[in-house]
Task: inverse folding
């Protein structure tokens, strides 16, 4: 039977899982809004960010309250401190989805992404979505195998990011400076989204195993 | 006389002050390296990031250890949890200075910043440096007046950032796509640096007053 402390710990973990599902949905919806110039969907993502922020603040209060009441030590305390860090990363991932959606809205009714970059953004969306799905499993089950798998996905995201920049710099780029600026920032949002997911997965790996996941430099 | 707990709390605060001074130095040095194509200085900033990360990890361990040993509640616990968040923001500010320095190194022996943007980057450096100086005072003394002042500085940083983007988009821009990409990312690093400083100042305002600083939307 679980004691009250571990029930509360499970509830906080459930909150993190809920946040990570919302973040993934916001991210995928933001890309869809971006690629299809879907203003309503962009507005939905922009509005949904407040819900993610609400869970973040609620989890924060709950975690601090639990530390104050139960005064955990060792692994339990490290788990709770990690939860505080993970919720901050998830909140930031929500912000990045929000930025993507705002770019879609800013360029509406035009599409911010020129045809020549549609495939790369689609591939970055697929990677980001895959990474955040694995990250959710890592949060939910403490899955240390998947916690290390995200590194390879992040490498692929970085490769796509370099491909995006190379396209902007190529001789055939004829979409001008404004679109290049948009795409530079969008590329950064996707790349950072992936970085935060890796950071979360590594953090849980550390809590579960007591060892650092090998960081890429 | 201070008890051991409050001595430890002061020591952690001292660590945050130390981090914030290093971050500010890294930021100013990075800008100087960027504007004067000073490779040695860029390398110095890049190498110094490890020292900032070390303090970050040391403060983390120390803070968690203090929570475990002393089991603080109420304001003391909130202060410690805030310290964890503030050190993470400072670590990220260090990363941003590191990114600026890496841009300087990547373009060496050329200068990444074209003459037409020197004044704006100089002004962004001045704002960022001013904000991080105020932020240090806020961390050190819990100065709630300065904690709110940073909002105005951040507004000025945002204005400079818009001016930078407008310059890239102006008819007279003749430095091509690569420089526009560099400047877009640099602009983002300066702007984010300022955002983190505001976030730190607001967090301390909350710990000291129990009220949220009014956030800009």
Result:
């Amino acid at each position: 039977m679980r004691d009250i402390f571990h029930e509360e710990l499970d509830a906080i973990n459930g909150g993190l899982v809920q946040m990570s599902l919302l973040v993934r949905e916001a991210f995928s919806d933001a890309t869809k809004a971006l690629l299809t110039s879907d203003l309503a969907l962009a507005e939905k993502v922009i509005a949904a960010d407040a819900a993610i922020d609400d869970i973040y603040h609620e989890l924060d209060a709950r975690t601090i309250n639990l530390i104050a009441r139960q005064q955990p030590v060792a692994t339990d305390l490290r788990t709770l401190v990690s939860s505080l860090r993970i919720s901050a990363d998830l909140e930031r991932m929500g912000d990045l989805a929000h930025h993507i959606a705002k770019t879609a809205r800013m360029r509406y009714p035009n599409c911010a992404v020129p045809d020549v970059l549609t495939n790369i953004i689609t591939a970055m969306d697929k990677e980001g979505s895959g990474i955040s799905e694995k990250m959710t499993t890592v949060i939910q089950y403490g899955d240390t195998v998947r916690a290390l798998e995200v590194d390879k996905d992040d490498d692929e995201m970085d490769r796509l990011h370099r491909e995006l920049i190379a396209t902007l710099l190529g001789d055939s780029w004829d979409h001008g400076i404004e679109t290049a600026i948009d795409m530079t920032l969008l590329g950064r949002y996707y790349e950072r989204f992936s970085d935060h997911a890796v950071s979360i997965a590594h953090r849980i790996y550390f809590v579960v195993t007591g060892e650092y996941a090998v960081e890429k430099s």
